[in-house]
């Protein structure tokens, strides 16, 4: 058989979310929920994926990009109408059509793969995903005949008497034979609520089977998902939070099975797509977001927050925030420090407590112990930055660069007024305000900082000899 087509229904306004953002763009573990179902659908190797969107199509397109096939449902006329607007994209392109909901991000790829497999093996016209819920109120119930075959869907408003005891529900994921789907879709009638329901196709298939006296193959098949949690739809922020916890549990469990130690999974929040090497330990109350990659044998946390970082092997980030930065192997940060975007910390370098680095590079072995700020700076290797050091990089109009050479020693409470350069092996005395470049190996101190008199005489003599 050829590759299936997939329709993802994403046109719901999500009024219960009480948000200006389309429901399908609300995030779980750092990723919009629509991306999860699309990722699962891609495992089917579909011939085409059509995403049916509503009035907020522009926002969805901005998130997914032009690579996504978006079809707009201008009026919300129900699920059958949503599939109808996708018909021009799929008709003739596939033998089977799978319909999924964008607000079911926990649905596993393995489940929809099994659903498609059952559908094709059975030769059914329609194959539905079901599950059993202890409290199924609000869902359509699965009606079965004496042979245990599905024979209908009972909507919530129609449930009465013994039907209340039915706990198998319709999840809302379907596989259809496309040759049967398209002509029958046009026969779906408008409901009393003014919508066209996809579930009406189930009744049509059963009616045709009965009219034929059961001479045909039975038209319906089901797959009952064992884990009801994976089938949950998201309609409000309570459900979003519940689904988020489940997604985080899956992410943490996967990482632990790959060799990562997570001390307290319940207090550890790691985005989908984050990569962490084996034998790294994640301590409690730590959040790792974005496209962060963490190497092996690291210690992250407790109480740390990493966003879009590259962390090398054997690094330690303790009670600190690191965003958009790179740590080379063996670098340490914290506690209580902040690396802002554009920072690069060299191998075995140390950023201590209450320090901030912004748009700067610090070379291998450099030490910035405590209570310092380095911004827009290029710092060499094996530099000592004393407590209270500040690069004064902003003059009120523009940012300026500070350059510190290898092996320099910056005394405590030094103010480096950029643009300024401290040469290799240069030194500043405690409390210095450096407003002019410091030569290689020179020692300066004071306000403003100046070299020792003997050193000034030696340099002047050298200049005379050169002349």
What this model shows, in words?
- The chain has 467 residues and is of the alpha/beta class.
- It folds into 2 domains: 5-231, Spore Coat Polysaccharide Biosynthesis Protein SpsA, Chain A, CATH 3.90.550.10; 320-466, 3 Solenoid (UDP N-Acetylglucosamine Acyltransferase, domain 1).
- It contains 8 helices and 42 strands.
- The protein has a 12-stranded mixed sheet with strand order 12-15-18-21-24-27-30-33-36-39-41-42. Strands 14-17-20-23-26-29-32-35-38 form a 9-stranded parallel sheet, with no helix packed on it. It has a 7-stranded mixed sheet with strand order 5-4-1-6-10-7-11, sandwiched between helices.
- A hairpin with a 5-residue loop joins strand 8 (141-144) and strand 9.
- It is elongated, with a radius of gyration of 32 Å.
- The termini are far apart.
- The model has no long low-confidence stretch (mean pLDDT 93).
CATH architecture of the largest domain: Alpha-Beta Complex
Regions with little confidence, pLDDT below 50 for 5+ residues: none
Beta-strand content estimate: 25-35%
CATH class of the largest domain: Alpha Beta
Count the E strands: 42
Number of helices in the DSSP assignment? 8
Q: What is the helical fraction, as a range of percent?
A: 10-25%
Q: Report the C-alpha radius of gyration, rounded.
A: 32 Å
User: What is CATH's topology name of the largest domain?
Assistant: Spore Coat Polysaccharide Biosynthesis Protein SpsA, Chain A
Question: What is the fourth-level CATH superfamily of the largest domain?
Answer: Spore Coat Polysaccharide Biosynthesis Protein SpsA, Chain A
Domains (count):
2
Largest sheet: 12 strands, mixed
How widely separated are the two ends? 88 Å
Query: What's the mean pLDDT score?
Result: 93
Broad shape: elongated
Order of strands, main sheet, comes to 12-15-18-21-24-27-30-33-36-39-41-42
Structural class: alpha/beta
């Amino acid at each position: 058989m050829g590759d299936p087509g997939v329709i993802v229904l994403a046109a719901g306004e999500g009024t219960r979310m009480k948000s200006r953002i389309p429901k399908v763009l609300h995030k779980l573990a750092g990723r919009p929920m629509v991306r999860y179902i699309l990722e699962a659908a891609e495992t089917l190797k579909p011939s085409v994926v059509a995403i049916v969107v509503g009035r907020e199509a522009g926002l969805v397109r901005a998130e997914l990009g032009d690579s996504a096939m978006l079809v707009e449902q201008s009026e919300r006329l129900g699920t059958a109408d949503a599939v109808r607007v996708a018909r021009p994209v799929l008709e003739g392109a596939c033998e089977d059509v799978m319909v999924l909901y964008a607000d079911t991000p926990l649905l596993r790829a393995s489940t929809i793969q099994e659903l498609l497999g059952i559908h094709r093996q059975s030769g059914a016209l329609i194959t539905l995903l079901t599950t059993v819920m202890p409290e199924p109120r609000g869902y359509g119930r699965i009606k079965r005949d004496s042979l245990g075959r599905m024979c209908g869907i009972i909507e919530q408003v129609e449930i009465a008497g013994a039907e209340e005891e039915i706990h198998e529900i319709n999840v809302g994921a379907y596989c259809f034979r496309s040759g049967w789907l398209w002509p029958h879709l046009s026969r779906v009638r408008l409901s009393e609520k003014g919508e066209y329901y996809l579930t009406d196709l189930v009744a049509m298939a059963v009616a045709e089977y009965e009219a034929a006296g059961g001479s045909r193959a039975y038209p319906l098949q089901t797959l009952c998902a064992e884990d009801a949690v994976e089938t949950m739809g998201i309609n409000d922020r309570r459900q979003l939070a519940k689904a988020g916890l489940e997604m985080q549990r899956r992410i943490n469990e996967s990482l632990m099975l790959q060799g990562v130690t997570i001390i307290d999974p319940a207090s550890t929040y790691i985005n989908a797509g984050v990569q962490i090497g084996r034998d790294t330990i994640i301590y409690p109350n730590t959040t790792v977001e974005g496209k962060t990659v963490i190497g092996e044998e690291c210690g992250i946390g407790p109480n740390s927050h990493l966003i879009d970082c590259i962390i090398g092997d054997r690094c330690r980030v303790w009670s600190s925030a690191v965003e958009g930065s790179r740590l080379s192997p063996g670098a340490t940060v914290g506690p209580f420090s902040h690396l802002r975007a554009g920072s690069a910390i060299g191998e075995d370098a140390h950023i201590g407590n209450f320090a901030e680095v912004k748009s700067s590079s610090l070379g291998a072995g450099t030490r910035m112990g405590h209570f310092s700020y380095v911004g827009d700076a290029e710092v060499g290797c094996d530099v000592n930055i004393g407590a209270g050091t500040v690069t004064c990089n902003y003059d009120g109009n523009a940012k300026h660069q500070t350059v510190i050479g290898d092996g320099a020693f910056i005394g405590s409470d030094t103010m480096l007024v950029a643009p300024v350069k401290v040469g290799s092996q240069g030194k500043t005395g405690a409390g210095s305000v450096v407003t002019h470049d410091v030569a290689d190996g020179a020692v300066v101190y004071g306000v403003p900082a100046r070299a020792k008199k003997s050193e000034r005489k030696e340099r002047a003599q050298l200049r005379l000899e050169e002349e």
